[in-house]
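User: I want to check something. If I give you two sequences, will you return the structure for each one separately, not as a complex?

Assistant: Yes, each is folded on its own. Here is the first sequence with its structure:
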Amino acid sequence: DEKRDLSTRQWANRHFGDGFKSLWTVFELTFSGCWPNYVRPLIEDVSRLYALIFAVYVTSVIFAMTRIIAALFLKETLSQASADTEMMVNERAK
């Protein structure tokens, strides 16, 4: 956008200029925890509509990671409960 200053356009191009750059930036902001460093300049200097996009993205990713971690804990808990039950049955059979 020609209305934006040169430094903002260069920053946006450096991080989101093509498909690979965008993919790498999204990978970094997802797994490094520094997503405000990438999102805030877009919201403040480019368009406030990016706030909606990233709010949905961050909420979805956090929800998905929380569900995955909860599922792993549940799987381990059920596995331990099953092992305990089998151990109790074997002890009573003796």
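And separately, the second sequence with its own structure:
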Amino acid sequence: LQMSILKKQSKACSDYRGCVFGDLTDRLPQCLQQWMDDAAPSSKDTHCKARKANAEVLEHLQRNASWAFPATSTSFCHVHKHSCPTYPGAMYTDSHAAFFLELPDEQPPKRACR
């Protein structure tokens, strides 16, 4: 459903010029995908433990953004049916890459994480 809506939005807003990519993690290097799988919280973790695990993943992605999300990367586009640049015209450095990895500052229910 989400993919369908995004493709319709590409048609309506940009006459099919906007790309629609699949899962972001599919574009990551295999070693990083494996690390994220290992570092991800389990469904049995408490909210605080899960939040800490997700924060570690975010920190790792931010530290390694220059090679995890290279400006020259491409990915299959569901609108154009071929590989398209994921960051056309962009040149990111580690300090600038964090803007697309920011997580909302949510407060956990009942008590703060320690």
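Because they were folded independently, the notes below concern the second chain alone. The longest strand covers residues 74-77. Residues 91-114 have pLDDT under 50 and may be disordered.
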